[in-house]
Design brief:
single chain; mainly alpha
């Protein structure tokens, strides 16, 4: 008798997981027999998949991220330009000019700001750096005609600060663990549908359910092979063969246990149905 095979859904990444349950849902809705015999479970799966879709969209990249990257790139260019300008003035063989430039060059060295720094760290360091240039070193900056550099660098840095704050506020509205919760709900709905189809095939024969079962098993085989296939890590390659064999044996036992549980769940409705039929025959 055909049954739907077991798959370890928690091991599938978010995008592939959503694709898997969406494909199963679409196929089940297109199958007249499954749609009529498991209407309630199918409706529950549909609701769960819709909730997972919402959680997946919410957890994706904020639209502000590209704007932040653009502002970050602009301030990096201005900061590098300012440094090059100061270095250029240091090379000028005019006492007052080189003396002023050397003071500003030392200021740059003291802060040790790098455009490769973490975003928020760079923002904070530049805020203090620019504040110095607008106050303590303002006369020196003005004497070298670098005021425009400082003004534009401040504007770009402030834009990064405001955008990152806006993105943080936006993310505060996202329910913590929403993706995990929605996936767990979808997994429960999927397993309930699988249990029902396996039970129906067991009780009434698999003829009417063969097409759906074959499709799901083909998807299961594909995802096991392409999405959750085993890839030995670098650390695993260096471990003792006996340790690796123990892990593989434990994993095999877990899979066998899951399959056994699935079979028991499928047999339970069959036993209940048979018992009910016996009672009806006794009464008549």
């Amino acid at each position: 008798m055909k049954v739907i095979n077991v798959i370890n859904l928690p091991r599938i990444n978010n995008g592939a997981h959503f694709m898997f349950v969406s494909n199963i849902l679409a196929r089940a809705e297109a199958d007249a027999v499954v749609r009529s015999k498991a209407a309630g479970l199918l409706s529950a799966l549909k609701d769960a998949v819709a909730a997972e879709d919402l959680a997946l969209n919410t957890s994706s990249k904020s639209l502000l991220t590209d704007e932040i990257a653009k502002a970050d790139k602009e301030r990096d260019a201005l900061y590098i330009g300012y440094k090059k300008a100061v270095d250029g003035f240091c090379a000028i063989n005019v006492a007052e000019v080189s003396k002023t430039a050397n003071i500003l060059a030392q200021h740059i060295k003291d802060y040790r700001i790098s455009i490769a720094d973490q975003l928020d760290k760079q923002t904070g360091m530049l805020m203090n750096f620019i504040a110095d240039l607008e106050t303590k070193y303002a006369p020196l900056v003005e004497s070298l005609s670098l005021t425009l550099f400082v003004t534009k660098m401040k504007e770009a840095n402030e834009r990064v600060r405001k955008l990152t704050l806006q993105r943080t506020n936006e993310r505060m509205g996202v329910t913590v663990g929403a993706m995990k919760q929605s996936r767990e709900a979808t997994d429960r709905a999927y397993r309930a549908l699988v249990k029902m189809v396996n039970a129906l095939a067991l009780v009434f024969g698999d003829t009417d359910y063969a097409s759906f079962i074959d499709y799901v098993n083909a998807e299961v085989a594909h995802y096991k092979r392409e999405v959750i296939k085993k890839r030995p890590s670098a650390s695993k390659k260096t471990r003792e063969p006996a340790e690796m064999q123990n892990e593989e044996l434990a994993e095999k036992q877990n899979e066998e246990l899951a399959e056994k549980q699935n079979e028991e769940l499928a047999e339970k409705p069959n036993e209940e149905l048979a018992e009910k039929q016996n009672e009806e025959l006794t009464n008549t």
